Amino acid sequence: MFSTARGAATLSLLANLTLVGLKLTVGLAIGSISVLSDAVDSGMDLIGATIALFAVRFAARPADRDHPYGHGKMENVSGIVESLLILLGAGLITFEASRRLIDDTQIGSVELGIVAMSLSLVINIGVSFHLRRVARRTGSLAIEATAWHRTSDIVTSLGVLLGLVMIQFTPWDFLDPAVAIAVAFFIAWTALRLFRRSFVDLIDIRLPDQDENLVREVLRRHAGEYVGYHTLRTRRSGRQREIDFHLVFPRIATIADAHNITDRLEAEIGDVLPDAVTTIHMEPCPIAREECDSRCTLSPTPYCHAREDAGHTKSEEPSG
Question: What percent of the chain has pLDDT over 70?
Fold first, then answer.
């Protein structure tokens, strides 16, 4: 039930509801700003999980007339919204913790806080591991963002728990707001990482080198079936990778032959890069048809080595 991207988002939502209720109740009961700060963090995660659930459902919609490239970018938008919400929560925690640090406020039953944070830690570790497995299998950015939230929640809960343990055995009540401020800074750092991860895909930055190298390796395996290729472009849209390039064929090649080769390339690229959508523009070699037999047997031509006029780049992998 929870093995799909949608199921994982639902699980995260249910876990957050439980944790927010637990931490708020205990934090208010004992007057601990560090526990309340962790409750605010979980509350931000709750809002983020709700956004992620909506984003996963929206991004899964097929392409339509108004969105011919699909709806994958919604996952990037959700990641940016979540990161801004987390930053807001970090600011609120810092403000309240600083005020309590100045006022030297004491807390009540520390034992109750220790029990609550220990339970929170167990829940977060279990859910985090599950979300990461689902994110790796599905490639969902929204689930990956939610998993990062879980990781930050584990660290913050552990910090709050250690602070409460130290307060229990020492007279250092100032540790409660001090831990809360440390939690706030960690939350802010996590938010900035998530913002960058979501933003770079939203502005169509190219895929990582390792992904592009997989595409080039597929092309190398078929180097004897075309003259060369150029203008390789890549980007990511949600969980979907988009790849396009120009493939140069000799003029004696038939449309059917060229089409069969591009079909094989698209299929093999899809095997090495799941969720890849590959678009290949077929292009004739500049050597005239009547000269093909005498001048070209699919060996590198001057065109394959360099062509940098308008709209073209240097050939990346001539055959031969």
Answer: 78
Can you state the percent helix, strand and coil of the chain, rounding each to 5? 65, 10, 25
Q: What is the DSSP letter of 287?
A: S
pLDDT of residue 309: 35
What domains, with CATH codes, occur in the chain?
5-202 (1.20.1510.10), 209-305 (3.30.70.1350)
pLDDT of residue 172: 76
Q: Quick: pLDDT tens for 246-302.
A: 999 888 788 898 999 999 999 999 999 987 889 999 988 877 666 665 445 544 443
Q: How confident is the model at residue 70 (pLDDT cuts 50, 70, 90)?
A: low
d(CA 258, CA 89): 56
Residue 100: its pLDDT value, please? 73
Long-range contacts of 270-278 (CB under 8 A, 24+ apart): 272/214, 272/215, 272/217, 272/218, 273/211, 273/214, 273/215, 273/241, 273/243, 274/139, 275/139, 275/239, 275/240, 275/241, 276/240, 276/241, 276/242, 276/243, 277/240, 277/241, 277/242, 277/243, 278/243, 278/244
- This prediction has a pTM of 0.54
With contact defined as beta carbons under 8 Å apart, do 89 and 40 qualify? yes
Other Cβ atoms within 10 Å of 109 Cβ, number = 13
What single string gives the DSSP state of each residue in 39-104? HHHHHHHHHHHHHHHHHHHHHTSPP-SS-TT-STHHHHHHHHHHHHHHHHHHHHHHHHHHHHHHHT
Question: Do 101 and 179 touch, CB atoms closer than 8 A?
Answer: no
